[in-house]
Design a protein that fits this description.
It is built from five helices and six strands. With about 140 residues, the protein is α/β, with parallel strands linked by helices. The protein has one domain (about 1-140): 3-Layer(aba) Sandwich (Rossmann fold). Strands 1, 2, 3, 4, 5 and 6 form a six-stranded mixed beta sheet that branches. The structure holds flavin mononucleotide.
C-alpha cells in the first residue's frame, strides 16, 4: 500500500506535521511520499492508495476561516479520486473552525472516502501526528486502532 502526504505550508509548521505523519506511516512498514501540494502531480495522487491532505488555516475578513486558498484550489483541480482513502489535517493558531470539514468535503466531491481528520496547534505541529497516522491506517485496513 502506497501513501501520499500532500501539504500546503507557508511557514513550515504544516510541513513539519506532514513529515511526522509520513514518518509514522513508514514506521508502520508502509511506503510514504511527502510533497508540497504544488509539487504533487496528479499521477502521484492517482498512484496512492491513501492520501493525506494538509493545509494551514487561513482567515479572510469576509469569507471566514478555512483551508488556505492554495489548498482549496488544489483539491478542486484534482482528478477523480473514486474509491480512494483520504484523511485531512491542518495546523492553526486560534481555531480551525470549518477547515477540516471543508477539506474533507472537497475530497469527497472528488469521490474519496475520508478516514480521519486532525487539527494541530501551530506551536506543537507534530504532537499527536503519529497517533493520527496510525488511526487512519487502522481505519483503512479495517483493523482496531
Ligand atoms: C494570512 C494568515 C491568516 C491566518 N488566519 C488564521 C485564522 O483565521 N485562524 C487560525 O486559527 N489561524 C490562522 N493563521 C495561522 C496559521 O494557520 C498557522 O500559523 C499555521 O500553523 C501556519 O502554517 P504554516 O507554518 O504551515 O504556514 C493565519 C496565518 C496567516 C499567515
Amino acid at each position: 500500500m502506497k501513501v501520499l502526504v500532500a501539504y500546503e505550508s507557508r511557514g513550515g509548521r504544516t510541513k513539519r506535521a506532514a513529515e511526522a505523519i509520513a514518518d509514522a506511516v513508514r514506521t508502520s512498514g508502509l511506503e510514504a511520499d511527502v510533497w508540497p501540494l504544488k509539487e504533487a502531480e496528479p499521477d502521484q495522487v492517482r498512484a496512492a492508495d491513501v492520501l493525506f491532505v494538509g493545509s494551514w488555516v487561513e482567515g479572510f475578513l469576509f469569507f471566514g476561516v478555512g483551508p488556505a486558498k492554495a489548498a482549496r484550489q488544489w483539491v478542486a483541480g484534482l482528478p477523480s479520486l473514486s474509491g480512494k482513502h483520504a484523511a485531512v489535517f491542518c495546523t492553526y493558531a486560534l481555531n480551525p473552525r470549518g477547515t477540516l470539514a471543508a477539506l474533507g468535503s472537497g475530497l469527497r466531491a472528488k469521490g474519496a472516502s475520508i478516514d480521519g481528520e486532525a487539527a494541530f496547534h501551530h506551536r506543537r505541529p507534530t504532537e499527536g501526528s503519529a497517533e493520527f497516522a496510525r488511526r487512519v491506517l487502522a481505519a483503512v485496513l479495517g483493523e482496531p486502532a
